[in-house]
Design goal:
Blueprint (H helix, E strand, L loop, with lengths): L6 E5 L5 H9 L7 H5 L5 E5 L4 H6 L5 E6 L2 H11 L3 H18 L2 E4 L5 H12 L21
Length: 146
């Protein structure tokens, strides 16, 4: 049975946020954080920030989902875009704090277990995900999804 619990996709940029957002959109309405806070069904997407843990705690009984990706690939993605590696380090620290506190469902675009992880998430949400793992928002000429 499809879940009616609010779903929060919490990510570090360039770890598959757009890819997994699109998979969720196939089954659930995308909402704002405020909508979920006010009791709407569906899901929202947020990058992990200094306020994330408090934001998650304010939502009643959410299903928490996060993405991960080879850290070296994420670092290369940041460099190609001229984004701050210090900001990336801050994101990873906050991400790890969130994972340790909430133990979310973890999905990955580049894990050898990615099909298994996605099936596990689908089972928890009561839906079946289908994907060919084609990159979303990939940087032109790069290897793999950005």
């Amino acid at each position: 049975m499809k879940t009616d619990r609010p779903i929060i996709l919490v990510t570090v940029p360039h770890t598959g946020t757009s890819f997994f957002r699109d998979l969720l959109r196939a089954h659930f309405a995308q909402r704002t954080y405020r909508d979920l806070f006010e009791g709407a069904d569906g899901f929202c997407v947020m990058h992990v920030t200094e306020d994330t843990i408090a934001d998650i705690a304010a939502i009643a009984d959410p299903v928490l989902v996060t993405t991960t990706r080879d850290p070296g690939a994420v670092k290369l993605s940041y460099r190609r875009r001229g984004e701050s590696l210090d900001a990336l380090a801050d994101y990873w620290k906050r991400w790890w704090d969130m994972v340790c506190q909430y133990k979310p469902y973890v999905v990955s675009v580049d894990s050898p277990r990615r099909d298994e992880l996605l099936a596990e998430l689908g089972g928890a949400l009561g839906v079946e995900f289908a994907t060919d793992w084609a990159p979303v928002n990939a940087w032109k000429g790069s290897e793999g999804p950005d």
